[in-house]
Amino acid sequence: MEPRRKLISPILVSLFGATVGGALWHSDAMAQVPPGRLLASQCSQCHGTDGRGPGFAEIAGKNKYGDLRDMAHRRVEGVMDRQARGYTDEQLRLLSEYLATTPESGGGN
Amino acid sequence: MNILNRRHFLQAAGAAGVLAAIPRAVSAQTTSPRVVVVGGGFGGATVAKYLRLWAGNVQVTLVEPNATYIACVLSNLVLTNAISLTRISLGYSSLQTNHGVSVLQGRAVAIDPPGNRLTVQTDSGMQDLEYDHLVLSPGIDFRPAPGNWNPELTPHAWEAGTQTTLLRNQVASMRNNDRCVITVPRAPYRCPPGPYERACVIADNLRTRGRTGAKVILLDANAGIQAEVEAFTHAFNVTLRDWIEYVPNAQVTSVDSTTRSIVTTARTENNARVLNYIPNQRAAPIAAGLGTDAAGFVPINPLAYATLAFPSIHVIGDSASVPATDGRGIAKSAHMANSEAKVCADAILRTLSGDNPDENIATNSACYSPVTQRTASWFSTSFVYGDVFTAGGEVKGKGMDRIDVGEAPADRVNNDTFTEMFTWADSLFADSFA
Fold first, then answer.
1. Residue A34 to residue A64: CA distance in whole angstroms
2. Is residue A31 less than 8 Å (CB to CB) from chain B?
3. For FRET with B279, which of B206, B267, B297, B350 sits at 20 to 30 Å CA-CA?
4. Is B412 within 8 Å of A77 when comparing Cβ atoms?
5. How does pLDDT run across B347-373, given as a tens digit for each residue?
6. pLDDT tens per residue, range A12-63
7. Chain B residues within 8 A of A90 when measuring between CB atoms
8. CB A77: neighbour CB atoms within 10 A?
9. Domain boundaries, chain A
């Protein structure tokens, strides 16, 4: 199973926010959003959150751009041959580069 | 619950003498933002989970009347006793313990857009929740039925649970020469392949139980099969030919649950053993109150799923009307609701950070349908953001343009695909609820 994030105390968050004063709320997470993350999340319905299962083949930690391009252009047999046609080539590259950076399920986080 | 609910949070923060001193307009920007999600189906669960996954300092409250969600996904297999309701029952404990989502059991009854406030009816009375963003994922509502329809007698089973059990028991009671009448609603409706899938698995069940002369009559309000045309045409004409009769252009003009009779523009069926009337559909009331299009669903901006009148109120899933090319609409499905939820979550977080929503977006649905009790097909449909077109080919604006659609090749409608269907469902369940 994937490691789980720790809960964050709403009180501590609010104290921090108040200390910062008038600054607009800022998500650290959003400050460095990898460009392919949202696109790659569309793979997770069938490959698990961040590509780490449960589901079909685990895709975390791998760059599948070449495979996806092949699927997008070959004769349709499996559902992935259709799903790969659902993105522009640039989108396939972006989501593949993002997934290559995600930890595999056995590799910790 | 593993995190404090909002009332306790405010009390605690107020006791600390900090938040209470800050005017609301400022505190809304300096404390962690609050997102309230209405509806704990696939769309609502996914948006709540991904908001927390992608920004742990956003407070997310999920408002849902039921303690357990029973998925429509795979629910047609419950009708033939292939699986149990437990198999498709999903809880909220993972969202709470693994992702820090606060779950409030209650029914959203009113929105105050200028006040950024949602009123929720709970067992302990009315509660107001303030939000910076509100996401509505309330599913569908049924349009009023013509005639005299009582779903306790003639179930729709288009929201899974006791309705599914009722229809299952009625199907089990079928004898030789009995008829099971099923209606296909006028498009758009939840789960385009669903009624055809249901007709097929029930027909196959009658066949394997040896119910001689028994039949499923499928009355379709539309001019033709709405999804997986090849797979279902083959099932109707070949595999299940003696057990199923498909009637297109059959718009319901009257239903009578007492006699289990139905009148349509193409066919009248009286005294059926089972009448599974699936009504025409529209957005659920809490979303519909924000304004609907002619089809009865809520128009949204496809980059953030924000309503046109209120940028901080979003509608995802079955209630939403996503701008698309004419005749190439977005399928209303669990998978698509999950897909839209991620786009919505990302857009909310970018907006809260002062950025614009991402325009490089794609959504998809890939769903598996049993065609018999041992074989299944699949349906895949994909959309990217860009120009969308009228039927005449003229640009009508921006939206989600369908760039691919298709179903399983005929030789793939088999038992391997039937097995894959469970992998798909379990993955979708986990990505949304775990």
1. 17
2. yes
3. B206
4. yes
5. 999 999 999 999 999 999 999 999 999
6. 333 333 333 333 456 555 667 889 999 999 999 999 999 999 999 999 999 9
7. 360
8. 13
9. 35-103
Judge: B4–A77 Cβ closer than 8 Å, yes or no. no
B54-83 exposure pattern, b = at least 16 Cβ within 10 A, e = fewer: bbbbbbbbbbbeeeebbbbbbbbbbbbeeb
Q: Taking CB atoms and an 8 Å cut-off, how many pairs form between chains A and B?
A: 185
**In chain A, which residues have their Cβ closer than 8 Å to the Cβ of B358?**
38
Complex-level ipTM? 0.90
Those residues with Cβ within 8 angstroms of residue A12's Cβ, 6 or more apart along the chain or in another chain = none
User: Residue B25: helix, strand or coil by DSSP?
Assistant: helix
Residue of B nearest to A55 (CA): B427
d(CA B136, CA B139): 9
Please write the tens of the pLDDT for every residue from B30-80.
589 999 999 999 999 999 999 999 998 999 999 999 999 999 999 999 999
A45: left (phi over 0), alpha (psi -120 to 50) or beta: alpha
* Fold (CATH) for A35-103: Cytochrome Bc1 Complex; Chain D, domain 2 (1.10.760)
* Other residues' Cβ atoms within 10 Å of the Cβ of residue B383: 30
CB contact residues (below 8 A), chain A span 42-61, against chain B: 42, 44-49, 53-56
Q: Which domains does chain B have, with CATH numbers?
A: 1-31 (no CATH), 32-141+283-359 (3.50.50.60), 145-279 (3.50.50.60)
